[in-house]
Every structure is written in structure tokens, then in C-alpha cells.
């Protein structure tokens, strides 16, 4: 499974990249706003900075909601860097724009997916990635992981090449469960990726190993 980081924060992206496990980045207008980025020039420069930190797969979301504007804005985003994946909302205009970009060889990520039917539509339009939001479904007491399983089954039934990008992934267990269900990618904040590192027995075991080593070293010095 590929790991994407869900942020526009350069420090967090750099930290995940340094860990050596990062395959890409997803952003959205809220995440860009959180970094204080607005205006065409600032957006372009920020995406350039993100692309310079990672090897590929930087999802850049359009703000436009009608087809013509989505095509215009998405084309500008795609021209920033070949690593850019144009992120489009799952609306009728978004699906039309997805078809436009896939026909023109530009990678897309269909976002705000909450049903298997929406995912199927995105795949039919040639989306590179489809982003089901599992955390937001759980926020309204709905099983987000079931959605991943349903989409996996449908895509496998017809060998659809669209990748399942599990989104709104908020903790380490979400990542593990998405992996168990066969999601192709999980995008999450740095805290969830780092959360995968943690287990108290790892910390206790390491402390014990180092203490035993220290004692043995001290003993061998005494014996000299
Ligand atoms: C995905 O592409 C979105 O940017 C993101 O995963 C949304 O996550 P949230 O529901 O935690 O805001």
C-alpha cells in the first residue's frame, strides 16, 4: 500500500519524506488555507515547494465548481509540475472534468466520495484515484471501512484500474484496516503515520536491550 500525507504543511511533508516511506501528498482547500496560502501565485509557489520535497503524486484540488473553470484551473495546476494530480470533487461537473483530464493524459483524484456508486462513476470517467472519506463517515456514525471493502470488490469485479485512495484517515488503526481491506493508498496526517511506529513493548524491549548491553560492557571493563 502506498502512503500519502494529507497536509500542505512543508515541515510535516519533509519529516515524512525523511522517514523514507512517503509516496505522495494530498491537499485540499482547507489544508491550503491552514497554511495561509491563497491567490494563484502563492498557490503555484506552494505546490512547487511541495513537489520539490517528494518524488511524485501531489494532489492539488481545484476551487472551481463548473466544468469550464475546472478544466482551466486544473490545467494550470497540472502545468506546475508533472508530479501534480488534479483533484476534483465528485459532482457532475467534476466527473465531466475527470473525463476531460483522463482523455488528455492528466492524472486525477476524485474527492469527497461517500458511496460505492460515486466511486464507480469516478472509475468510469477514468479517474486515476478515487478518495473515499472514511473518517467523515465515522463522524456521522457510518461504517467507513465497509465503503473501502465495497469499492475494492467492485473494482476487482471489473478489473477497473482506478486506485482506491483511502482518505480522511485519522489514525494508525485506520491505516492498518485500510491495508487489510486492500486500499491501494492511504492518505493521513503525519501523526497517523508516526503512530504506526509506536508500541510500549518496543520501547520497553529496547530499554531492556540497551540496559543489558550497558551492564555487560561495564562488567567487561571491571574484569580487565
Ligand atoms: C483527502 O483527500 C482529504 O484531504 C482529507 O483526507 C480529509 O480528511 P478530514 O476528513 O480529516 O478533513
* Proportion of strand residues: 15-25%
Low-confidence stretches: none
| Global shape | globular
What sequence of helices (H) and strands (E) makes up the elements?
A: EHEHHEHEHEHEHHEHEHH
Please describe the biggest sheet, giving its number of strands, its sense, and whether it closes into a barrel: 8 strands, parallel, barrel
Molecular structure report:
By secondary structure, this protein is an alpha/beta fold. 55% of the residues lie in helices and 16% in strands. The chain has one domain (2-199): TIM Barrel. It has helices at residues 10-19, 29-34, 40-53, 67-80, 92-103, 116-124, 134-139, 144-157, 172-180, 190-195, 200-223, and strands at 2-6, 24-26, 58-61, 84-89, 108-113, 129-132, 163-166, 185-188. It has an eight-stranded parallel β-barrel, surrounded by seven helices. Helix 4 (67-80) crosses helix 5 (92-103) and helix 6 packs parallel to helix 8 (144-157). The N and C termini lie far apart (52 Å). Erythose-4-phosphate binds at residues 6, 26, 28, 111, 131, 133, 135-136, 167-168, 170, 187. Erythose-4-phosphate binds next to helix 7.
Amino acid at each position: 500500500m502506498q502512503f500519502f500525507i494529507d497536509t500542505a504543511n512543508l515541515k510535516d511533508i519533509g519529516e515524512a519524506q525523511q522517514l523514507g516511506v512517503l509516496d505522495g501528498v494530498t491537499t485540499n482547500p482547507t489544508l491550503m488555507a491552514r497554511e495561509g496560502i491563497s491567490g494563484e501565485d502563492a498557490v503555484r509557489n506552494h505546490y512547487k515547494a511541495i513537489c520539490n520535497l517528494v518524488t511524485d503524486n501531489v494532489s492539488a484540488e481545484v476551487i472551481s465548481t463548473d466544468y469550464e473553470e475546472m478544466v482551466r484551473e486544473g490545467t494550470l495546476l497540472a502545468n506546475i509540475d508533472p508530479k501534480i494530480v488534479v483533484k476534483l470533487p465528485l459532482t457532475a461537473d467534476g466527473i465531466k472534468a475527470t473525463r476531460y483530464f483522463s482523455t488528455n493524459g492528466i492524472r486525477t483524484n476524485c474527492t469527497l466520495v461517500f458511496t460505492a456508486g460515486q466511486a464507480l462513476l469516478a472509475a468510469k470517467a477514468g479517474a486515476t484515484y478515487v478518495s473515499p472519506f472514511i473518517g467523515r463517515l465515522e463522524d456521522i456514525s457510518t461504517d467507513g471501512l465497509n465503503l473501502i471493502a465495497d469499492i475494492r470488490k467492485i473494482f476487482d469485479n471489473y478489473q477497473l484500474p482506478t486506485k482506491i485512495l483511502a482518505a480522511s484517515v485519522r489514525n494508525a488503526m485506520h491505516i492498518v484496516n485500510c491495508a487489510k481491506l486492500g486500499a491501494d493508498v492511504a492518505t493521513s496526517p503525519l501523526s497517523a503515520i508516526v503512530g504506526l511506529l509506536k508500541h510500549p513493548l518496543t520501547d520497553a524491549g529496547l530499554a531492556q536491550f540497551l540496559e543489558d548491553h550497558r551492564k555487560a560492557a561495564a562488567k567487561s571493563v571491571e574484569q580487565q
